[in-house]
Amino acid sequence: MTQKLILRSCRKSPLSKWKNIDWSLIFVYIGITFFGGIMIHSVEQNQGLTDWWQHWLTGGVGLILALIIARCRYELLVNWKWVIYILTNLSLIAVQIIGTSALGAQRWINVAGFHVQPSEFAKVGVIVTLAAILESERRVKLFNFFKVLIITAIPWLLVFLEPNLGTSLVFGAIALGILYWGNVNPAWLILLVSPIFSAILYSLHFPAWVALIALMALIAWRNLPGNWLWTPVVAGINIASGNIGLILWNLLKDYQKDRLIGFLNPEQDPLGTGYHLIQSRIAIGSGQLFGRGLYQGTQTKLNFIPEQHTDFIFSAIGEELGFVGCLLVLLAFWFICLRLVIIAQTARDNFGSLIAIGVLSMLIFQVFVNIGMNIGLAPVTGIPLPLLSYGRSALLSNFIALGLVESVANYRPK
CA-CA distance, 98 to 106, in Å (whole number)? Predict the structure, then answer.
C-alpha cells in the first residue's frame, strides 16, 4: 500500500508535491536566518571575518535540503530507524577517535576541509528514532518508556564525553517532549527527573530532601505496576542521588563547573567565569527600548563580549535593537512553535506528530537556555541560539529538521 502511494506521488507534477507545505513556517525560518547573518556581520565588522555570508550560504544549502526532504514521504523513515540510530552513534564514536579538538573539547570531524559537528545531526537522528519506536503506541507502556531512555542514553553519553554538556542536555529535552506527547503517564516523567532535584536538595536543605524522597515513594506506589517492588527502588535511587550527584560533579571539567555555578553570582569573578554574563547584561540593558542602532553597539564594536557571533548573539540584538528587537525575535520563535504544534495536531499519523514535537522540544529548549544565559537566568552551557548563532552544522541540522516537519505537513490529510 505504501509503495502504491509513493508511485502515485511520483507521477504528480513537481509543484503539486509542495502543495500542502507550511510556507509561513519556511518564510520565518528564512527571515530569522537572514537576520542572523546581519547580526553576525554587525558583531564582526571590525574583525575582518566573513562568517556572516557563510551563515547565509549554509542557510541556502539548508533550505534546498529542507525542500527536497519535504517532497519525500517521511513514513519511509520508520523502516530505517535502526540504520539512522546506528549511523548516529557511529558518527559520535568517530569524534572520539578522529575528532578535532578546540576550546578544550573534541567535537568536530574534519571532512574535506570542513569541520562537521556530528552531535548537531545526532539530535535529528534521535528524534526520528524515538518517534519511530512510539509511532504505534496509543499510550506509552513502561517497557517502551525504559526503551526510550536507554536509546537516548547512548548518544547522550557519547556527547557528554566529548565533553559537550549543553548539547547532551538537548537529548533529554527531546526524550521528555516525545514521551509527553506520546501520552506517557505524567507521574513517570516526575519520577524520571526526581533524582536531579534530590541531588540538588541533598546539599542545600536536608529536610526538603527527605520530604522529596517520601513524595516520590508515594507517587511510585500509586502509579507504577508492582508497587511493592518499584517503590523501594525509586526511594533508593533518590537516596543515592546525593552521592551520585557528587560523583557526576567531579566528572565535569573545571570550566563546566565554573559555568554552572558562575551565573548565580557572576560578580564574584568578574574577570573570569562571570565576565560573559556581566558584559552580556550590560549590553542588553544599554539597548533600552529601541537600541543603539544597527552596527552601533559599543559592547560589540569594542569586542567586550567573547563568542558574540555564536553563544551571545542575543546580547548584540538587545544592545543594537533594544527591547523591541528582542521581543520581535521572541515572537518569531513563538510563531515557529505555534506552527509546529499545529502540524503535530494535524499529522496523518503518530510518527509524523512525534517528529514535529521532537523538533519543537529541541527548539524550545535551546532558545530558553541560550536566552536565559544571555540575561543571567541560566548557566553558560554553549548552546547556540537556533538559526541566529553562527554554526554551520547547527544551522544545517535545524533546516534538516524543518524538512522533516514540512514533509509531515505536506502529506497531511486534506
Answer: 9
Helix, strand, coil percentages in the chain from 3-state DSSP, rounded to 5: 75, 5, 25
Among all chains, which residue has been given the C-alpha cell 567531579? 250
The confidence score (pLDDT) of residue 25 equals 96
**Residues near 103 by beta carbon (within 8 Å), at least 6 away in sequence:** none
Compute and round to an integer the Cα radius of gyration of the chain: 22
Looking at the structure of the chain, the number of domains it has is: 1
d(CA 72, CA 74): 6
Q: Which amino acid is at 16?
A: S
How many CA within 13 A on the CB side of residue 393?
18
Rounded Cα–Cα distance for residues 134 and 31 (Å): 33
Secondary structure (3-state) at 277:
helix
CA distance 332 to 34: 13
Picking from 132, 128, 119, the residue whose alpha carbon sits closest to that of residue 170 is 119
What residue type is 40 in one-letter code? I
Selection from 129, 148, 131, 147 nearest residue 86 by Cα: 129
* Structural domain contains residue 227: yes
Identify the bridge partners of residue 114 per DSSP, sorted by sequence position: 111
CA distances from 363 to 127, 338, 372 (A): 12, 12, 14
CA nearest 411: which of 112, 77, 36, 46? 77
Asked whether residue 6 carries a pLDDT value surpassing 50, the answer given is: no
Q: Is residue 11 part of a domain?
A: no
- Other CB atoms closer than 10 Å to residue 283's CB: what's the count? 26
Span 228-281, pLDDT tens digits: 888 898 989 888 887 776 676 676 666 666 666 666 666 666 666 667 677 788
Residue 381 counted as domain residue: yes
43 alpha carbon, distance to own chain's centre: 24
Locate 112 and state its grid cell. 574535506
What CA–CA distance (Å, rounded) separates 100 from 177? 32
Calpha distance 194→93 (Å, rounded) = 30
In a domain, residue 268? The reply is yes
**In whole angstroms, what separates CA 28 from the centre of its chain?**
18
Range of the domain at 222: 20-410
Rounded to two decimals, the pTM is: 0.88
Do residues 379 and 360 make contact, with C-beta atoms less than 8 angstroms apart?
Answer: no
Helix segments in 205-226, DSSP class H: 206-223
Average pLDDT, the chain: 85
Q: Quote the cell numbers at residue 302.
A: 569594542
